[in-house]
Recover the amino acids of this structure.
């Protein structure tokens, strides 16, 4: 009779989950790994205080429902996290436990109890979006007489045209842009999935003007570089948008009362497409949503669209390195 291999330690499972499962098998983005990493750093620190065990001393048995429920309460009541953030942390823990269930059969009962913890219901706020006049004012705000102004005009025009996520804009290269009779841009979205989005004639003209003024054209160069030639970071893109909004607010004062993020531009793209009669399934493809159900939130965001929909419904007459067992599990997570 063969001896069953001993169950791996909790620390080893964490390592294999990040390196083998997330990093190699699923090949998730570094942003996804960072989100999972932050969850487990917080969880291990919480466990260290509440059950007085160092991270490397923890076992799968310690990851019980009582600990996880206490951690979720801690996130909301002590750290002031929203229900949405609380649910995101729970989703990360669930993903790890589902992985662990295939490797530590002795912990199945504990894992099942934690997996039974429900996501917390919460009211989803209606998505915020800008009017067409507000968008136009923002797109025209950067000074076209300067290099940064030309770049920002091209970048903001592309963001509004495509509804791209800020992370997608930050990694764009010249090679991703195809200017011609039918201009498109190739975006790399969540899960490294690629999609091609058509460019409107005006957007293509703005981008062509931006690209043509660069004598050092190289396909691998960032499409929207900083002054040093490196890719703009997500925070830098948000800052450039903030500056454009500030200038646009001179003519549209109400803009100064709003927080306009890159994601608000994305929402505005979706709403304007919807109001123009574009089918919701096409908008889902445009934005890179995995399911059209994700896009349905926009149907609830605009009261005009609701009223028109009701009228139509009425009847006619009515990291790669192998990780050895660590001395400090938190150090491993911080290294990701």
């Amino acid at each position: 009779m063969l001896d069953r291999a001993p169950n791996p330690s909790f620390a080893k499972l964490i390592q294999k989950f990040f390196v083998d499962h997330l990093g190699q098998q699923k090949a998730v983005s570094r942003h996804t790994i960072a989100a999972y990493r932050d969850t487990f750093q917080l969880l291990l620190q919480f466990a260290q205080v509440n059950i007085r065990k160092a991270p490397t001393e923890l076992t799968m048995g310690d990851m019980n429902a009582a600990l996880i429920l206490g951690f979720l309460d801690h996130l909301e009541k002590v750290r002031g996290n929203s229900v949405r953030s609380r649910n995101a942390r729970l989703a990360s823990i669930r993903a790890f436990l589902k992985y662990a269930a295939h490797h530590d059969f002795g912990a199945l009962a504990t894992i099942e109890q934690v997996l039974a913890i429900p996501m917390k219901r919460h009211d989803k706020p209606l998505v915020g979006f800008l009017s067409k006049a507000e968008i136009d004012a923002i797109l025209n705000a950067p000074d076209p007489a300067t290099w940064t102004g030309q770049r920002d005009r091209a970048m903001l025009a592309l963001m509004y045209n495509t509804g791209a996520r800020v992370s997608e804009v930050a990694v764009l290269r010249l090679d991703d842009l195809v200017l011609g009779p039918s201009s498109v841009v190739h975006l790399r979205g969540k899960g490294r999935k690629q999609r091609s989005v058509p460019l409107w004639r005006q957007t293509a003209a703005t981008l062509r003007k931006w690209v043509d003024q660069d004598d050092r054209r190289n396909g691998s160069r960032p499409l929207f570089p900083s002054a040093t030639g490196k890719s703009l970071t997500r925070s830098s893109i948000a800052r450039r948008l903030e500056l454009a909004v500030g200038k646009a607010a001179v003519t549209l004062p109400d803009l100064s009362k709003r927080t306009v993020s890159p994601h608000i531009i994305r929402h505005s793209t979706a709403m304007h497409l919807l109001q123009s009669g574009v089918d919701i399934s096409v908008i889902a493809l445009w934005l890179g949503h995995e399911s059209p159900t994700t896009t349905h939130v926009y149907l609830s965001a605009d009261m005009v669209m609701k009223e028109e929909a009701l009228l139509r419904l009425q009847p006619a007459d009515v990291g790669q390195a192998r990780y050895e067992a660590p001395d400090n599990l938190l150090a491993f997570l911080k290294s990701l």
